[in-house]
Design a protein that fits this description.
four-stranded mixed sheet, Endonuclease III, domain 1, DNA-binding, Nucleoside Triphosphate Pyrophosphohydrolase, about 40% helix, alpha+beta, elongated, 14 helices, three-stranded antiparallel sheet
Amino acid sequence: MATVQDSAGRYSSSSLPVPQLRQALLGWYAECGRDLPWRQTQDPYAIWISEIMLQQTQVQTVIPYYHRWLEAFPNISTLAQASQQQVLKLWQGLGYYARARNLHTAAQKILSEHDGQFPQGLEAVMDLPGIGRTTAGGILSAAFNQPQPILDGNVKRVLARLYALKQPPQKVVKLLWQLSSNLLDPVAPCEFNQALMDLGATICLPKNPQCPACPWLNYCQAHQQNLVKNIPMTTPSQPIPHKIIGVAVIWNSQNQVLIDRRPADGLLGGLWEFPGGKVEPNETIPACIQREIQEEIGIEIVVGDELIRVDHAYSHFKVTLVVHHCQYLSGDPQPLACEEVRWVTVAELNDYPFPKANEKIITALLAQARGDEHH
DNA sequence: GATACGTGGCC
DNA sequence: TGGCCAAGTAT
């Protein structure tokens, strides 16, 4: 018997037949479940890596990263002993880079505090950086078949529709955890959790859900009330700011360019970039670039031609990078607003982890270098 | 509890 | 093009 909040905000009783729901879902999963790389192992390390990569990231994006990662770092020990730069280079392009930094730190913590063995208690697992309750439940159910519930985006949507919740999922998280826990099959928790996620990922889609193919069609309260299109409820999103950033590709007399490593925490932490900063009101781009380089690197430059403009959307703001070639004049480059600065050749850029927006700058640099050879 | 935190695909 | 969304966590 599950308790579901009704439209008036009161809690009313709902009694979907849990044993039949389990049987229907597991039967569907046996027939239609996805064959994914991390389902072919019970190694908690490999499963852990997949769970972290899959946070806010779709399966098709993760698969190539997953294989490359396990080849480079096949176990906890190899990951713990790698440098953060190696770790970030393998993560380059996946986004949410704190995930990679946390994996690295957690591997070292497992070596020092758990004798190198991945912990099997919920508390100990959630105590590792980057692992919340959903990821902990996912790992423990998949690797050790423990009856731990999960509540990711797929499960939230599936349960919101199954019980026709009239409120946005983020407002009823506690209830959703109860529902996930009540439904979880105690005999086959590993399969059940995977099945729940597959249902959300392949049938109970955000848009154009494939209801006729759903094993829960006859139980789904949203379907019975013709509310599938409206559930889960959403809250309007806030407008996001757009920043104009002046960026410098600074050349020295040895035909090297200057790059800097961002602070370890925060946006794109630990990644390298071409230096620059936000254009202030009534400031020209060249003036911005010259000022930012003086303030953050402590050197004098001459700002030259524009190389490229790069539009890029992050999750909570947008930027336009206006990138100019620059010529080094004088001063000793210092890491005044970053971790480190370094002169490198264009060919060496490939050895450093860069965010996507900077990859576009590098591509433009290489294209221009190729073009120059023909003149 | 709201916000910061990346990127790619879809329409 | 722009907005939405995807196997969430940390603060």
